[in-house]
Amino acid sequence: MHNPSMPPRCMALVAALASLGALAGAGCGGTVDDRPPKWSFIAATIVEPSCATVSCHSAISQRGGVDLHAREIGYYTLVNGFYVIPSLPDQSAVVSLMNADGARRMPPDVPLPEADIALIETWITGGAPNN
C-alpha cells in the first residue's frame, strides 16, 4: 500500500507542533532549581529547620560542638571549623556527612533532599560566601 506524501505546509505544521511540545515539556515540571545559592537562604530554609533542632545543633545541644541555630554563628562554625572548604565541595566534611549512610548521615533522622544538598554544593563551589 502506498502512503501519499504529506503536503509541505502540513509537514511544517507538524514540525512546529513537535517543537512546541518539546519546549513545553522542558519548561514544565523540569528540575531547574532557581533557589539562590546564598548562605542567607540556605541557613534560613535548610540548615536552621533541618539541623539546628533542639536535639542536634542548637544553641542548647551543640552536638559535636556544632552550633547552627543562627545564621552568623552557623556560618562561622561551618567555615572556621573546616566543615566547609570554600570552592571544594568534594573535600567539605558537611557534604560527606549529608551523603553518608546510616548513623553518620546528617541529619540522621530524615535525609535532606538531593536538591538541597546540590544547592549547598553549589554555594560551596562558589566560594561559600557569607551572603
Describe it for me?
The chain has a domain at 39-125. The chain has 131 residues and is mainly alpha-helical. It contains five helices and no strands.
Mean pLDDT: 83
Helix content: 40-55%
List the total number of helices. Answer: 5
- How many strand elements? 0
Radius of gyration: 23 Å
What is the global morphology?
globular
Low-confidence stretches: 10-28
Largest sheet: none
Beta fraction of the residues? Answer: under 5%
Distinctive features:
single chain; 131 residues; globular
What's the SSE blueprint?
Layout: H1 8-27, H2 39-50, H3 71-80, H4 93-99, H5 114-125
Short overview:
This protein is mainly α and 131 residues long. The protein is 47% helix and 0% strand. About 15% of the residues have low confidence.
